[in-house]
# Entry
Amino acid sequence: MREPDVEIGASVKADEVVFHETPDVEERAGAEPEGESEASTERRNLPRPAKLDTTYRDVRVSHRLRARLTGADDDSAAAEDEDDPAEPDA
Amino acid sequence: MNQPPAGGAPGEDPDVLLDVPVVKVDEVEIEVEELRADVSLRAAVLDVLDLGVGADVDLGRVSLTLRGVEAQAMLKVRLDNVARIIDRVLDTVDANPELLAGTARGAGAAAGELGAGTVAGELGGGAGRVRNGIDARRPPRRPHAGRETGLERPRPAPPPGPGPGPRPRRDEPERRHEPEPQDRRERRDDRERRAARDVPEKADDLAAGALAAALARKSVRAGRDLIGGVLKRLPGM
# Structure
């Protein structure tokens, strides 16, 4: 994707992580009338899905959610760089 | 932390930036209900363009414990792409003010076919407000060397005369006031005849009518396509 118009990003690094409940995560990204979106996640030492009441050590999670309008002048670029729509990430 | 959670091209700062660089916590227990991060951008140009782009993350419920935490968060908005799209639309309207006039005429005609006078009034009034809005709020985007804006101008006041009464006859040589020049009168009559007919005569008028029909159908995409077609016909665009 080219430079996104809107972007949300977060990163967490922890020595230890314990989940007490299963996270209920929803995320959406998109553009009207037409656009593209992208979600990317980097996880280290944290399986998907995470198990409850399990201690995970040296964890790092980085997530980014981006969206961009595709206008008349970059339709061709969008066609070359087709990205899957954002999907929820547990 | 070694790398930012999100970023753009080096050297290109976003127009809106919410940055939580680093938060360090030894130990934290988190219980959250309905935590939401939402960023969106919406822009509209007249009735021609309505666009939006956004992203949001919703955590319904989270319960976890973290130790030795470093966290970052970032939210960015860049306006250059949206501005470029809007700029093209405004340039199109700027170069083709007939689009706006055609919108009003086409909407009126369409509503007439439907027999919906109320709709005609609303659509026509909307177009009129749009035209006034451009004239009042928006400075010229570039020099208009001899270009007609297409906005209606008040008619020149009639020349000062003796007041209401019979119009002077041409065969009255003793009258002081010169009769209206023939070429000027012909131009005025021609304008009035055109207005009375209210029939599209030029390609742009036809495009404007189609645009109005597309807008009446609430089809933004169709409107954009029509504008794109007009753009292709313009020299140098």
Q: What stands out?
A: Chain B touches chain A through 54 residues (CB under 8 Å). Chain B is about 40% helix and 25% strand. Residues 16-78 of chain B form one domain. The helical segments of chain B are 80-95, 98-114, 117-137, 182-197, 203-216, 220-233.
